[in-house]
Amino acid sequence: MADTRFIIQRNSLIISARANRLRRLAALGGRGILLLITSSSALVILFIFYFIIKDALPFFQLRGLKEFFTSTAWYPSSSPASFGATSIFVGSGLVTLGAILVSVPLGVTAAVCLSDMLPFSLRQLVKPVIEMLAAIPSVAFGFFALVVFAPQLQERGGTILSVAWWMITAPVAFLMLWIVSSVLSSRLPERIRSMGRLGLAAALAAPTFWGIWFVGRSFHALEISSGANALNVSIILGIMALPTIVSVSEDALQSVGGELREGAYALGATRTETMLRIVIPAAKSGICAAIILGIMRAIGETMVVWMASGNAAQIPRPWFNVLEPVRTLTATIAGETGEADHVTGSARYHVLFAMALCLLVISYAFNYVSDRIVRRTSRIGRA
Amino acid sequence: MTVAPTGNMVKPVLSIKSTNALRQPSDGDNQGATHLSIEDFSVFYREFQAVKNVTMVVPSGRVTAIIGPSGCGKSTLLRAMNRMNDLIPGVRTTGRLCYLGVDIYGRECDPVEVRRRIGMVFQRPNPFPKSIFRNIAWAPRINGYRGDISNLVEHALRQAALWDEVKDKLDQSALALSGGQQQRLCIARAIAMQPDVLLMDEPCSALDPIATSHIEDLIDELKKQYTVVLVTHNMQQAARVSDRTAFMYMGELIEIDETRTIFTKPKKQQTEDYITGRFG
Amino acid sequence: MDLTSRKLVDRSFTGLGWFSILLMAAALVILLAPIVVRGLGAFVFKGTVEHRKLQFEVFGHGRAGAVDAETAEVTEARQPVYDMLAAFEAELESADFASRRKHAGPLRELKDHLRRLLGPLPAEDAPVLMREQYGQTRWDRAQMALNHLLLIETYDYSDPTQMGRKILTPRVEDFKGTSLEPLFAYVEDNASAMLKPRWTLYWRFLFDSSHDAHFFGGIWPELLGTIYLTLGAILFAVPLGVISAIYLVEYTEEGSRLVGLLRTCINTLAGVPSIVYGLFGLAFFINSLHVSQSKSVLAGALTLGILVLPFVIRSAEEAIRAVPQTYKEAALSLGVGKWRAITTVILPAALPGILTGTVISMGRAAGETAPIIFTAAVSVGQPLSFLQTFSEPTPALPWNIYNLCSEHEAVDEIRHVQYGMVFTLVMLVLLLNSGAILLRARITKRMRG
Ligand SMILES: Nc1ncnc2c1ncn2[C@@H]1O[C@H](COP(=O)(O)OP(=O)(O)OP(=O)(O)O)[C@@H](O)[C@H]1O
Ligand SMILES: [Mg+2]
């Protein structure tokens, strides 16, 4: 019989108390080792905080808080040195703001388009585009910004700006005119309504487009003294943040589910109304998380800003003038650690850790907020 | 072997008589000895009691079928027999479930060893994403089998009546087999470990009639060597292949007896109602 | 709003969506096009005889006979130029002081331009710098040098409101009426005979080391450094990450306090800006642990490893979670212990996902610059042997791209090297990414049969 030919070793069903204890101990030990490894990879974050704080504290002990956060005089290498980082904070904030302005509207509409408008086959084509954009190393973006984009911006900046201005405002103005005139003309009697609408539209169009043209012309006349400025960096950072924003908000939109959409369509809503009134509000938290992740990518980015922001520690005048060069936290750390390396112990070295600490705190705060948002909604979703 | 016309399930009682599938309990070497004995056994999913104070014995060398409406706790009871419920968080048991006289839920009992001796075949065929050969050879190898592994594989496949169909493609992925073949492969995988008891949870529910009849034939063969516990929804199947049948309802064991008795003169009204299709 | 307007708004919204998608695609194309086109220029270009001579003399590539024959030919074509120069110089010797003074400056300039185009003049000692030992190796750069030789560039700043206006005057005017006048026409007409441009596939760009601050040669030290750093990071991050993922999925209950804490830590780690990783690597690995005296490949790889760790954990977790529960059930029902079941059934089934995550993290590690600035990267260096990686810093593609295009002494003259490097890095990363996708598809297919 088969049983006699194939013998698989069997242990006793019952194991002695000692063996049992040993076995439990071994299992516990195994789990312990696993836990140790896991927590060591999780604890790296505490190490990071510890080591950054350890080297940041001496700076605050030496120089106090006030100068760092309120002064704009950043002369770390002169003597006496001064370490006012306000302009650097403003620089970081400005390019981040610019990146948000570029990436959020584009990213969210692209996500909507991807999840609700494109046919399946096209979606399969667009996905790799997003993945490729996300994969390209930041130094390649920086190289592009510095070597390709900056000279163009310097030579043809005015033209580029005015074209962009027209591309953004003309369709919006057209749409607004149409809506305003149709709303206004709906009060008119039936007979002359369409005539009235056309007349109204024409009357309103003249001043509107003149305004657009006027602003566009002043853009056109702008001379850009250096292509390495906040605008350049904002645009590039915006493009870099796009893939994150698109893919995360697309996930959020997808998870809203078909019933809600069908419900809205069944009530006679157009696709836009469904998306704007029903789906996007329902996916709001996911989209917020996406935007926060995008912002984090922009704030934390080093190479692009270091290479193409101009690295001038100054507050642009007026503060929103993106055509001036700026300097950011990340670029300062990257650019000055090498020089401060040799004089370990001086304020000049520790100030860079103070900046890293600020970055760390900012990114932790954003992370916390997005975590909170996601968690709260997933709880609501489950309830 | 009896291959019943599986199409008509309208009147189970009649069709059983006509297929002549009910066998007298044959008296073999150790047939009839108690293999698994279950005493006042309950299973809880956190607060919910899925199996309620069941007491029964599974005799060795015979096929025991468990029938009952969906959700009555058949799978839970079956999975309890080789401690597969350990995988589900929050499962608790009370009572005793003894295998060869050892309470398998006792502190000193080794669940891995229990599963080595009590094999299981699941409702859906679940071969590993490996080759056919390695699906079967995997567990014996890990458990320290030192003999000729390809002989063992061939033997298991022959016992599972699959050898002729796959002998030329042992290196191909098991996932490329048909559903029925996959299920027989899973049976072969289980019997390659030479278990004493084979638990089968609705092994035919995902299969077509022909594949089903293959498996039924196979069970008939297997009971010569193994004790089989079979959960099924198909009462004809229970009648055709099992020697004893247990009827469960709402977590309770209503009745257990020789299959012939259950299907011809059940003692409980509930059993009769269920078998004749008056509820379910 | 009436129906027409609602429809119009709907259309515009759709249009906006399409516009953003197209813009994204356009951004990708605009970004990649110059990198690909000009990057290929580092590999495929019209190489001059100087290129072949350099390849032979410095790297030992090519056949001696062919190079010698070509050198002889171009020497012959160049001879009239040098003859004219010598004749003119002799003429100056005997000329009056005023004429000597008038021509001395322009002559010096002319000789500089000639050297730049064709390499050192025949009678001179060999210069020290390698970039002065050879003429232009690439025909496109040779043509630029030729232009500078033929035309003088000056700027007109007379209008203070405008930027300076460029004015070009032929250099020949400086030598009107001298014996040097025909030189310019001769050089212009015989440039290609003197340099012999020929289409060249310089695939060795990847494997040649660089000479004279990247003026000549390839990018092997950088490429090798990037490979070392990437592999080191992966070797460090993948075992840690996979084990952590196993623990999180198989050994903890979702929703417990501990898991929540671990998750928060890992998420925060994923959000840390890359430059902070760099500072941390400097403060921890180099200044505290002293894994090496100063910057080293080891320190950089560890830093990069930490950077990709959260990503590896997440993708491994996802992959392990995606393995059907039934595999585990089947494995356990055969009487196999849990750890054995995990290592022999679940991990193999999760392997495609884990590999995909690994390969994508490799791409990430290869492209990151900020973490290696203070921990591993130097601007110039030799290819390292394996043992040296524990103590020596290395050049690396991302860092040297930055370095060559913003800190190099002659940024404009080595554009092709910069583009070549960016092209190599981008292709490396994109290949890794598409490799990951293909890999996933193939393994999944094989598993499905
Ligand atoms: N993992 C679980 N957690 C909580 N309750 C469960 C779980 N699995 C099963 N149950 C509950 O236990 C009861 C018995 O389930 P079981 O799967 O044993 O039924 P069954 O008789 O096998 O049904 P079917 O014939 O449909 O397979 C059901 O009421 C079910 O809801
Ligand atoms: Mg069941």
Structure characterization notes:
The complex is a heterotrimer of chains A (about 375), B (about 280) and C (about 450). With about 375 residues, chain A is an all-alpha fold. Chain A contains 14 helices and 2 strands; from the N terminus they run H-H-H-E-E-H-H-H-H-H-H-H-H-H-H-H. A two-stranded antiparallel sheet of chain A has the order 1-2. In chain A, helix 4 crosses helix 11 (about 285-300), helix 6 packs antiparallel against helix 7 and helix 11 (about 285-300) runs antiparallel to helix 14 (about 345-380). The N and C termini of chain A lie far apart (about 60 Å). Helices cover about 35% and strands about 25% of the residues of chain B. In chain B, the strands form 2 sheets. A 6-stranded mixed beta sheet of chain B has the order 6-7-8-3-9-10, sandwiched between helices. The longest helix of chain B is centred in the C-terminal third of the chain and has 14 residues, at about 210-220. Chain B is globular and about 55 Å long. Residues about 1-30 of chain B have low confidence and may be disordered. With about 450 residues, chain C is mainly α. Chain C is elongated, with a radius of gyration of 31 Å. Chain C starts with a helix and ends with a helix. The chains are: A mainly alpha (about 375), B alpha/beta (about 280), C mainly alpha (about 450). Chains A and C meet through helix 2, helix 4, helix 5, helix 6 and helix 8 of A and helix 1, helix 8, helix 9, helix 10 and helix 11 of C. Bound molecules: adenosine-5'-triphosphate (ATP) and magnesium ion (MG). Magnesium ion binds near residues 74, 75 and 201 of chain B.
Layout of SSEs?
The complex is a heterotrimer of chains A (383), B (280) and C (449).
Chain A: H1 2-5, H2 17-63, H3 66-70, E1 74-75, E2 82-83, H4 86-117, H5 120-135, H6 138-185, H7 193-220, H8 230-254, H9 258-266, H10 271-282, H11 284-300, H12 303-308, H13 329-340, H14 347-382
Helix pairs in contact in A: 2-14, 4-8, 4-11, 5-8, 6-7, 6-8, 8-11, 9-10, 11-14, 13-14
Chain B: H1 12-19, E1 34-45, E2 48-59, E3 63-67, H2 74-80, E4 91-99, E5 102-103, H3 111-117, E6 118-121, H4 132-142, H5 149-159, H6 163-166, H7 179-191, E7 197-201, H8 209-222, E8 227-231, H9 235-241, E9 244-249, E10 252-258, H10 259-264, H11 269-275
Parallel strand pairs in B: 3-8, 3-9, 6-7, 7-8
Antiparallel strand pairs in B: 1-2, 1-4, 4-5, 9-10
Helix pairs in contact in B: 1-9, 4-5, 4-7, 5-7, 7-8
Chain C: H1 3-40, E1 44-47, H2 49-59, H3 64-94, H4 97-118, H5 130-133, H6 139-150, E2 151-156, E3 165-170, H7 181-195, E4 198-201, E5 210-211, E6 216-217, H8 220-250, H9 257-271, H10 274-286, H11 297-321, H12 325-333, H13 338-367, H14 370-373, H15 397-406, H16 415-448
Antiparallel strand pairs in C: 1-4, 2-3, 5-6
Helix pairs in contact in C: 1-16, 2-3, 3-7, 4-6, 6-7, 8-11, 8-13, 9-11, 10-11, 11-13, 12-13, 13-16, 15-16
